[in-house]
Amino acid sequence: MMVKASGISGTNHLYIDSDNNGDTGYRGSVWTNCGAEYLVENGALYSYNANGTSWPWTKVTNITMLTSDSVIETVVSLSLIGRSTPGEMKLSYRRNSTDYAPVKYSAMAVANAKITGILPLPATPVSISAESTDRAIELRWAPVDGATGYSIEVDGVEIDNGTSTEYLHSDLEPNTQHSYRIKSKNQYGVSEWSNAITKTTLLAVPQNVEVKAGNASVTLTWDVVDGADGYEIYRNGEKIADVVNATYIDTEVEQGSTYTYAVKAYNNQSNVSSLSSQANAMVLLIVPTDIKVSYVSSTSLKLSWDTVANAVEYDIYRQGLKIGSSLTTCYIDTDLIQGTTYTYTVRVKDSTGNVIGESNEVIVPTDAVHGDVIAPSAPINLR
Question: Is 2.60.40.10 the CATH classification of the domain at 292-364?
């Protein structure tokens, strides 16, 4: 399209009635048969999307527009204005409130659009990849020769992505599916959309992984993950088990060894989470190995054991609960109830406060804590 005149530098409007129908598009009163679907202004193409008399226009793309004081010239691809074939359409021009072409209140000019050459539209983006986490999906694609920008359709909404060949879709929910299409742009128009791709965010990463080491096993627990059908257990970087519930007991361990654990969640749709944070556990030595029980009174008893190397403190547990500590190799437990069975274990701590060993359980029989201590009988038959 070309406009020749004098003193026409500055803001200029070129109207295009692409369907050659004065009853559709922008029906302004300047021309008698005005029905413009598109507007070219200051190097950009706009499409009309209102009721015919109001003024909202939506930007389609930037286009090349050559302007001087006497000439305005631009080239618009037919595909950008809804035309797949050449043919008649109407055109008009306005510079300000007094300068029009054709003149005010006359009919829009009729032009016969012709194919004067094949405009070099950009190719459709290819080599599109998508990587997901539990909260984001990142897309990448190969640069398109001659493209000046890209648009991406995200879950049905078109977004201008500028010149970048990457897009990060963030703030997503775990285990949710999203769809994408991409097209490239240049000054002559836009490519076709790429094929749609879909990607699902990963399951949420298992949280609050905790380990509790005994002297022959390590127990793991973690929070349940929504949508998970099971969990993979990793020890020292290698998968060792699949479980359904959010707990696991590892019995294939050696006393005195330290292990690192992590967990993944998965579902039956092959969606697998990232690894959880790691948790470390040291399997305890079985020490002390020989705990002796002696009775002090009807409601108390004394525990004693052999010295353990590197031990600086001993914690005493009754019925699984810590009841006290000792810096020596004995402990007196009081306030016991006659006729009750008690179970004891002793845990050993080193100089850093780490637990390095735990005894086997010692079970005191129900009749062990008995009545008052009986004094020995007096000697008889003395001579």
Answer: yes
